[in-house]
Amino acid sequence: MATFILSEASAGYSLYEVVQFEAIGGLIEQAQETVTEISRFEKSVKLKAFHPFKDAHEALDNVTAISEHEVHATLKEFLQRELPSTKKGKPTSFKLGVVESALATAINEALGTSDCTFVSETVREVLRGIRAHQTKMVPTLAEGSSTGKSILMQVR
C-alpha cells in the first residue's frame, strides 16, 4: 500500500511518497537525529508533487482553513490530482499521513474516503525531516522561502 505525507509550508503544499516506511521507523528507533541526515532520509522519502501558492492571499486562505481543520478547495484539488485514484474501476489503496487528527477526518470527508488519512509519531518524524530538507527536496523553492511557520508541520 502506498504511503504519502502531506506537508504545508508558507510556499505551498507538498506531497511526499514514503518508499521505505520501515526504514523511517528504524531511523526513529536508532535515534531521532538520523531523520535530519539527508543522505539517509532521501532514500526513504521522495517528493511526489508540489503546489506553490500563487500569492499571499491564497496562502493565507489555505493556512486559515487548515488551522480551522477545514479542507480548502486548493488542497482538495491538489490531493485529488496527485493521490492515486482508480485503476480499472477499483480504488487504489493508499495512506496519507498528516499531523492533526481533525484535519485527517476533514480530508477523509472531502475526498469521500474512509480511513485513508492517519496520524502517528512516525509521520511527525517524517515531517521533521521534510522541514529540515524541504529546500533541497523541492527544486523550485529558493533558499529561505519555506521558513514560515506551518500549521501542519508544527508539533507541540
> What is the β-strand count?
7
How much strand content do the residues show?
A: 15-25%
What is the correct CATH architecture? 2-Layer Sandwich
Strand/helix succession: EEHHEHHEEEHEH
- Kindly report the average pLDDT value: 78
Notes on the protein architecture:
The protein has 156 residues and is α/β, with parallel strands linked by helices. The chain has one domain (2-137): Nucleotidyltransferase, domain 5 (2-Layer Sandwich), CATH 3.30.420. 43% of the residues lie in helices and 21% in strands. It contains six helices and seven strands. The strands form two sheets. A five-stranded mixed beta sheet has the order 3-2-1-6-7, with helices on both faces. The chain has a two-stranded antiparallel ribbon with strand order 4-5. Strand 1 and strand 2 form a beta hairpin. The longest helix has 17 residues, at 121-137. The protein is globular and about 35 Å long. 31% of the residues are buried. Mean pLDDT is 78; it is low at 143-156.
How is this fold's topology laid out?
Blueprint: E1 2-9, E2 12-18, H1 21-30, H2 38-44, E3 45-52, H3 56-67, H4 73-82, E4 86-87, E5 90-91, E6 94-97, H5 101-111, E7 117-118, H6 121-137
Task: Please summarize what this structure is.
By secondary structure, the chain is an alpha/beta fold.
Which key phrases capture this entry?
156 residues; alpha/beta; Nucleotidyltransferase, domain 5; five-stranded mixed β-sheet; two-stranded antiparallel ribbon
